[in-house]
Amino acid sequence: TTLREPAMCSMPLMSADCFSNDIHKLDTTNMMWTLISAKGTPARWRDFHSATIIGTKMYVFGGRADRFGPLHSNNEIYCNRIKVFDTETNSWLDSPPTPVLPEGRRSHSAFSYNGELYVFGGYNARLNRHFHDLWKFNPVSLSWRKIEPKGKGPCPRRRQCCCRVGDKIILFGGTSPSPEEGMGDEFDLMDHSDLYILDFSPSLKTLCKLAVIQYSLDQSCLPHDIRWELSAMTTNSTISRPIVSSQ
Q: Which UniProt keywords apply (predicted)?
């Protein structure tokens, strides 16, 4: 399911400057799109948000909107409340306010694991800030909790790729402000080519290796394969640039 451009902004000259809050459904058996006639109070018009399916419900978080409506007026707002869409009834559901909320953001990553929603990173132009925090949303209790993973995590960034593989989240790339420009500039950005792994179910071996790294323990007595794995865990994981031929 994806959010598409609303009918009220379908004029050719205005469509590029218009936010959206309607829903289209793709039937993967015949690859046909259908505009959903949704019931309830829809999510606010926005872009750069996330929409994550857990069971039969879609959880919309974040994104950039305009304070005055669906058209860009340079009065950006960043919603930090979850909006839920029920795909069985085609209805937007009302969610009660929660006492703890992450900052509103756009261009973040969102994924589900064990029936819960996770949000990482992103950017808020009003705060002039990039994020590298990790939050978990429980759709049963409708509550947020900030997660503090062990180990060294990614720097503040947006536009990164997050893919779940089993019990691990593979995070790659993204963009951050150039070091010379501080941590919030909108345009002076640098692209990352690094990779991080978030392990939700680490083995005892993995936890021991993390302890060796964290406390700088002596590795000389460890087997060669363990030393190699420790080296791989602490070596720069960026992709090298293509070699330019001199021909």
A: Kelch repeat
Q: Please choose, from the candidates 202, 220, 135, the residue with its C-alpha nearest in 3D space to the C-alpha of residue 166.
A: 202
In degrees, to the nearest 5, what angle opens at C-alpha 118 toward C-alphas 187 and 86?
105
The token duo for 147 is: 């997660």
Pairing relation of β-strands 65-66 and 76-77?
Answer: antiparallel
Within 10 Å of residue 226's Cβ, how many Cβ atoms?
15
Q: What is the DSSP string of 29-79?
A: TTTEEEE---BS-PPPSBBS-EEEEETTEEEEE--BEETTBSB--S-EE--
**pLDDT per position as a tens digit, 166-216:** 999 999 999 999 876 555 456 689 999 999 999 999 999 999 999 999 899
pTM: 0.85
CA dist 95 and 140 (Å) reads: 11
DSSP 16: G
Cβ atoms of residues 122 and 62 within 8 Å: yes
